Amino acid sequence: MAFSRPPNSKIRQGEKMIIMKKAAKPEEIQHVIDEVKKYGLRADVSRGQFRTVIGLVGDELKVPFAHLAALPGVKEARMVETPYKLINREYNDLSAEGESYTIKVGGVEIGGDEPVFIAGPCAVETRQQLMKTAELSREAGAHILRGGVFKPRTSVHSFQGLGSAGRDEAEEALGWLREAGRQFGMPVLTEVRGENQVDLVAEYVDILQIGSRNMYDQDLLGAVARKDKPVLFKRHFGASIEEFLSFAEYIAAEGNKDIILCERGIVPVGKGKSFTRYTLDLAAVPVVQRETYLPIIVDPSHATGRRDLISSMSMAAIAAGASGLMIETHHNPEEALVDAQQMVTPAELKKIIDACRRISRETAASR
Ligand code: PEP
Ligand code: MN
């Protein structure tokens, strides 16, 4: 893991931090820590993969800041102006435009040169459904398999995912997911809806998903982050980009920086009929990329809720620079128990992936 920041870091917005040079020697870092302590403050040390950052905790007025800034090995001393600094480009070495952090999972690289495609049903329904969809999605070019076992649903009367029936049912469905992933060579991901599911789900899948509705659940974020597996982190449909990144910071604050951000649409405005389920905020893609080095992907399925819009929104997302897409796919969408209206077939998925790959190649140089 890249960061060794302790949980519940005390460094807050508006506080000062010392950024060490990339080549700073251990004794130079220790010297700064000792100086900070000498003035009665605590030094919160974040030894990053890219750079060491020392936050000052305590009464900063007691410290001659200019003195610290001039110590050997110090790059700069500055005020923290953002609530998300661990994932902020500015405070890390990946500051060059376009350079991003890549997350590797089971041979798949997320945030690299090629877009990554995540496909699979909204919900795991049967073994046969999952295996068939996995096989055909793989053939279509998908890299990662998704499938909900614990579904967040608006109505308590609708299908909640097989996991909600009980522990045995959850393990059975998670077992199919793992089996399908192994058989077709795809890492697998599923949503963790509550803290009590974290241990169980982490035993079976490669990537843990935080769903839109849970973006603000900081206890769940902490528990998921501590599993040291990549986290697919979805933006809440009512969240600003700043909130989205501030809550992603809760995952990074646990020392887990393998965070895949996911734009999935925000609440549409106006009265009357809304033609899309949510409003896909594609500007969030380049904005997030300027703010953080973390990869961001797009989910056109939940954003639009319409099968006929998945292709155009997928292409637009890739043109905007997204590192990948998550597309709900079913071998026979009409049969799907959840979100049938937005599910594409594997044949449609293949067309989308092929088109997106072409767009990615053509637009890479001009972004
Ligand atoms: C999902 O991806 O399965 C899902 C429920 O999406 P969201 O949390 O974005 O609504
Ligand atoms: Mn769905």
Walk me through this protein's architecture.
The protein has helices spanning 26-38, 65-69, 127-140, 167-184, 198-204, 218-225, 241-252, 284-291, 300-304, 307-319, 346-364, and strands at 16-20, 42-47, 52-57, 74-79, 103-105, 108-110, 116-120, 144-146, 188-191, 207-210, 231-234, 259-263, 296-298, 324-328. The chain is of the alpha/beta class and 367 residues long. The protein has an eight-stranded parallel sheet. A hairpin with a 2-residue loop joins strand 5 (103-105) and strand 6 (108-110). Mean pLDDT is 91; it is low at 1-11. Bound molecules: phosphoenolpyruvate (PEP) and manganese (II) ion (MN). Phosphoenolpyruvate is lined by residues 122, 148, 152, 191, 211-213, 234, 264, 299, 302. The site of phosphoenolpyruvate has 11 residues, from loops.
Biggest pleated-sheet summary? 8 strands, parallel
Oligomer: single chain
End-to-end C-alpha gap: 30 Å
Strand percent estimate: 15-25%
Question: How are the secondary structure elements laid out?
Answer:
Elements: E1 16-20, H1 26-38, E2 42-47, E3 52-57, H2 65-69, E4 74-79, E5 103-105, E6 108-110, E7 116-120, H3 127-140, E8 144-146, H4 167-184, E9 188-191, H5 198-204, E10 207-210, H6 218-225, E11 231-234, H7 241-252, E12 259-263, H8 284-291, E13 296-298, H9 300-304, H10 307-319, E14 324-328, H11 346-364
Parallel strand pairs: 7-8, 7-14, 8-9, 9-10, 10-11, 11-12, 12-13
Antiparallel strand pairs: 1-3, 1-4, 2-3, 5-6
List keywords for this structure.
binds manganese (II) ion, eight-stranded parallel β-sheet, binds phosphoenolpyruvate, 11 helices, alpha/beta, 367 residues, 33% helix, single chain, four-stranded antiparallel β-sheet, disordered N terminus
